[in-house]
Amino acid sequence: MIPLYGFIAMLVSLPWAAGLFRRVAHRPAAYLNILLTLLAFAHGSLILQEVFQSGPVDLSYPWLTVADLELDISFSLSLTNLVALELITGLSLFSQVYSLGYMDKEWALARFFALLGFFEGAMSGVVLSDSLFQSYFLLEMLTLSTYLLVGFWYAQPLVITAARDAFLTKRVGDVLLLMGVVALCSFAGGMGFNDLYAWAATDSLSPLAATLLGLGLIAGPTGKCAQFPMHLWLDEAMEGPNPASILRNSVVVTCGAIVLLKVMPILQHSPVALTVLLVIGSISAIGGSLVALAQVDIKRTMSYSTTAHLGLVFIAIALQIPVLALLLLFSHAVSKALLSMSIGGVIAATNCQDITELGGLGSRMPATTTSFLIGGAGLVGFLPLGGFLAFAQSIELLSVRSIPFMAVFLITNALTALGLVRVFRHVFLGDALIKSRRAAEVNWQMALPMVALCVVVLLTPVLLVRLESLDGLLAFPLWAAGLVVGSGLIGLLAGALIPLSKAWSRSLNPLLRWFQDLLAYDFYTERFYRLTIVNVVAGFSQLAAWFDRNVVDGVLHGVARFSVQSAEGLKLSVSGQTQSYVLTVLVAIVLFLTAVSWFLT
Amino acid sequence: MLLSLLLIIPFTGALGLLLWPTAQSSERIRIGAIVILAVQCVASFAVLLPFDPTDAALQLVEKVRWVHSIGLDYALGVDGLSLPLVLMNAVLCLVAAVASRSIENRPRIYFALLLVISGAVNGAFLSQNLLLFFLFYELELIPLWLLIAVWGGANRSYAATKFLIVTAVSGMLILGAFLGLAFVTGTMDFSLRPILSGELGLPAQFLLMGALLIGFGIKIPLFPFHTWLPDAHTEASTPVSVLLAGVLLKLGTYGLLRFCLGLFPEAWQLAAPWLAGWAAISVLYGSLAAIAQTDMKRMVAYSSVGHMGYVLLAAAAATPLGLMGALFQMISHGLISGVLFLLVGVVYARTGTRDLNVLRGLLNPERGLPLTGSLMIIGVMASAGIPGMAGFISEFLIFRGSFQPFPVATLLSMVGSGLTAVYFLLLVNRAFFGRLAIAPGEVVNPRILDRVALREQVPAIALSLGVLALGLAPELLSNLSEAATTGLSQLSGGLS
Predict the structure, then answer these.
(1) Does A479 share its domain with A589?
(2) What string of H, E and C letters represents the secondary structure of A213-262?
(3) Interchain contact B319–A (C-beta under 8 A)
(4) Do the Cβ atoms of A234 and A173 come closer than 8 Å?
(5) Which one of A528, A562, A588 terminates a domain?
(6) CA-CA distance, A420 to A143, in Å (whole number)?
(7) What integer pLDDT is reported at residue B450 of this predicted model?
(8) A409 near B CB under 8 A
(9) Do the domain assignments include residue A117?
(10) Nearest CA in chain A to B378
(11) d(C-alpha A406, C-alpha A88), whole Å
(12) Could you write out the DSSP letters of every residue in A293-328?
């Protein structure tokens, strides 16, 4: 039914094709990559059609069998997974065309595309994966490719720390996840999600073990989705090339959330883990959107709002509403991708990321401006686009479950709207400042995907309605819609009415200034980490090194010195009388053997 | 006869090189050594043909009475545990010879010693007689000591002496344990077989096993017997480091599995919880100490301390999966540390330093070492256990195999795996990222950074491919050894 060959070829060729061709020349590698992504997208939609008609399919191939461990390569071609796959390949396609324009003069274009291909392959694998082991496997590959993509311009100092932090933060999450995976594998035997669900339904774990397991499992996605307290990397990762930021802000975080979604049934047994998930989600949602308000770097405003929206997804997953999580993920991914593209356009045109130094781009860059508006509209629950549907649906579902979290959703919505309007006013309205005076519209390679994605965002409601699994999407009551629009409007008006001075980035009022700094420095999280974790590890490593040099080696040298000195001493007692030597040796042997026999009997 | 061939080829080869007329250039001697080692490689892989991977027992056994009165017989045999190590030995010795360019100082002796090491290590892996094992175990010491003491760096005499004395102590302990075994069992039979409690009281078992443990612990090396390793690595030349980390440390872990676990399964089982704790300490200590290093070679050396700790952890658990992981870790560590030492060697040859406080921006495409940097990223990622490469498989197998008996020690070792990422990331970030120093007065003089010819990187590329191949198709190795590791695990009754 499903041509396996094509599927495998797709997954295998995506990550590697570019790598193989990168020595030939730059452009062909890029074109080849785009072509392969296009093929992947087309093939994916063919499979989607089939699955649409004849139901989901599971594929499994044995990979490694050792003793009692069986690891398979398994894919689950369900509707949700395939939609996610299409989202990934589609957005990847867009951002690859986009990078043709954005990275036009880059000397290492082929390397960039190779990494993008690797990135895309790993992501496609994650969403289709049907086994926790495989998901872990691919998530780690994502960690590696994020590191390499963020570190793409490795000669710049900020990039170095950004790449390091991205890798290490994710790695912390991954190691905790690995602990969960290993534990789960030992308890449950199999690693396929279905085996795990079956095991979870009949599990007899102690609450402590279940809690630790749950915490391990959520740590990985927390790192991937840049959730509090592992959110710093996404912000710093903005130092990397923008086309990769597009993917990172939209689909990479989606991958993390999808893994979390897949382990959701296992988490059910650990109330603590679910509570932690809710706390993480709420802090990230509100904290993230607040911090976004105080940023002056245009890309950072976006990254914090990504953290905020994924926080909402975490809440949805913790409350066991997978439909809502998917809805939020989908609408967020397309809109955020569009917003990131538009911002990339601004950066490409002005070579500036500081919103206080930009202005008046609206008339100069109409396509970019439109993209920003549409992307923002798609993200915020205000106009009847994806974001609105997702928010309205959340309000309806949450109103029966939990009023406080409904409030979190509404506040996040209002704050996001506020933040977007703030950025819009700074960058696109007002007088043109020095740095934006000579800005011109972006080239067609960048404009084309932007416009195309605009259409996608505008069509999101239609797409969502077409997916049968999300039926009943428009069945939310009017008051829910009213609340969403209301919160969006509050944010919008607040953003539009607050006086905008260039001093906005640093107020003169001490109290306000303190608050602003608090947000601008992300509640001083980075400083906190440097003072705690980093210092502790560094301290211990220095201690170990000192111990090594002085104690371990010290003892060794002491023994050496002792033997040399005693030899020097004994030298003086040399008499030349063989009898005395023999006597000494004999006495020693007798003593030794006595000691040994005494010990043994 | 095939197994004896694996000893005959390198030993006669070494003799041949020594008798080769002096007029030959070092390059021709190197090629001669490469040819011999390539033949050795072919012969080693030829063992795969008659080898039956489904059989846990010893195969291709060769037995000749030798000095039978003291129990020393010439007995060789191979099983799924030793075969992969023999193959790796062949490959890494070949790599070391290929990487030994520009040996101007007594090249004949240098390459002859390399061949002697190759043969001695093979002998140790293949011996089925305790005394014969000991002979080969000691035989490999002297050439290595000479290789460090004669062809080493500035502080070579200290490092070589330290290496010689410390590992000689290891040899003494092992010999003592073997002789003690004969003394308490009252037989002169040094053939390899499990000693059960019916035969020997537990205190005696513990005493003998303890001596073996410390003896092999020095070789592996485990904390606190490890300090000889960073010194030896720092002073050894690149190919010698490759051999030291890749092959010689494996003698220790092999001894651990074959003799500690294999001879005293009962005592081992009782000591296992303590050993797991020791393993976790060794892992964490090695990793933390590695973070503080500024010399690239020392950093890699300390990472060996950490990564060899995993082997002890898995050996302590002694589950079939864990032992497979232990073997996998020996092989992947051999290949990965080979890659890392080769690349550090390239950096050192080009820049004249390995100091992470000095090196910057080596990934620079024009004046830097981009290929070296890219391979280095693969190497450190493999070492940090990123999936798709051999390191991940071994770590996963070890952790999964040891989690049930020793959850806490396993979780602590996983933290060590996370710390690996920290120090190797520091290495890549400091030395390869950033801006290449361009001022002529600075230590990294761009004029020295000649392009590295692709052929110079062939060994590192080949090993990297091996790492990737084992990472993507782990069954290549696991099928070969599963019967043997399962058999060894059953010996101790397996704790799970």
Answers:
(1) no
(2) HHHHHHHHHHHHCCCCCCCHHHHHHHHCCHHHHHHHHHHHHHHHHHHHHH
(3) yes
(4) no
(5) A528
(6) 29
(7) 66
(8) no
(9) no
(10) A144
(11) 29
(12) HT--BHHHHHHHHHHHHHHHHHHHHHTT-HHHHHHH
**What's the mean pLDDT in A42-69?**
80
Contacts of A151 in chain B (CB under 8 A): 433
pLDDT at B42: 93
CB within 8 Å: B377 and A178: no
Contact by Cβ (8 Å): B60, B3: yes
User: Best of B411, B420, B477, B496 to disrupt the A interface by mutation (most A CBs within 10 Å)?
Assistant: B411
pLDDT at res. A505: 56
Answer for the pair A512, A438: CB distance below 8 angstroms, yes or no: no
Whether A245 and A287 map to the same domain: the answer is yes
Percentage of chain A lying above the pLDDT 70 cut: 92
> Where in chain B are the domains?
273-496
- A159 vs B: CB within 8 A: yes
Task: Inform me whether the C-beta atom of residue A183 falls under 8 Å from chain B C-beta atoms.
Answer: yes
The answer to whether A155 contacts B429, with C-beta atoms less than 8 Å apart, is: no
Q: What percent of chain B has pLDDT over 90?
A: 34
Distance from CA of A143 to the nearest CA of B (A): 9
Chain A residues with CB-CB distance to B207 below 8 A: 596, 599-600
Question: Does the pLDDT at position A501 exceed 80?
Answer: no
CA-CA-CA-CA torsion sign (A13, A16, A18, A24):
negative
A577 and A462 share one domain: no
CB contact under 8 A, B292 and A171: no
A230 and A372 fall within a common domain: yes
Give me the interface pTM, i.e. the ipTM. 0.88
Q: Cis peptide leading into A229, omega within 30 of 0? A: yes
pLDDT one-digit tens code per residue, B452-479: 777 778 888 899 999 989 988 888 888 8
- What's CA B240's distance to the chain center, in Å? 12
Residue B244's Cα: distance from chain center in Å? Answer: 6
Judged by a CB distance cut-off of 8 A, whether residue B417 touches chain A is: yes
3-class DSSP state of B129: strand
How many CB pairs below 8 Å do chains A and B form together? Answer: 140
Q: Given a cut of 70, is residue B495 above it in pLDDT?
A: no
Asked if pLDDT for residue B369 goes beyond 70, the answer is: yes
Cβ-defined contact of A171 to B361 (cutoff 8 Å): no
A158-167, A195-204, A409-418, B260-269: least confident range: A195-204
Q: Which residues of A touch B475 (CB under 8 A)?
A: 63-65
**Encoding tokens for residue A413?**
């919505």
HSE of B152, CA atoms in CB hemisphere, 13 A: 25
For testing the chain B interface, which of A11, A26, A66 should be mutated: the one with the most B CBs within 10 Å? A66
* Confidence tier at B25 by pLDDT (50, 70, 90): confident
Report the Cα B188 to chain-centroid distance in Å. Answer: 31
Q: Which of A465, A493, A528 is the last residue of a domain?
A: A528
Same domain, A508 and A545: no
Which structural domain range is residue A311 located in? 153-528
Tell me which residue in A64, A159, A183 faces B474 most closely, judged by beta carbons.
A64
List Cβ neighbours of A70 (8 Å cut-off, separation of 6 or more): A62, A64, A190, A191
B-facing residues of A in 184-203 (CB < 8 A) are: 185-186
Q: Is the Cβ pair A556, B365 closer than 8 Å?
A: no
Query: What is B298-348 written as a DSSP string?
Result: HHHHHHHHHHHHHHHHHHHH--HHHHHHHHHHHHHHHHHHHHHHHHHHHHH
Least Cα separation, residue A297 to chain B (angstroms): 23
Whether residues A350 and A288 fall in one domain: yes
A575 & A461 share domain = no
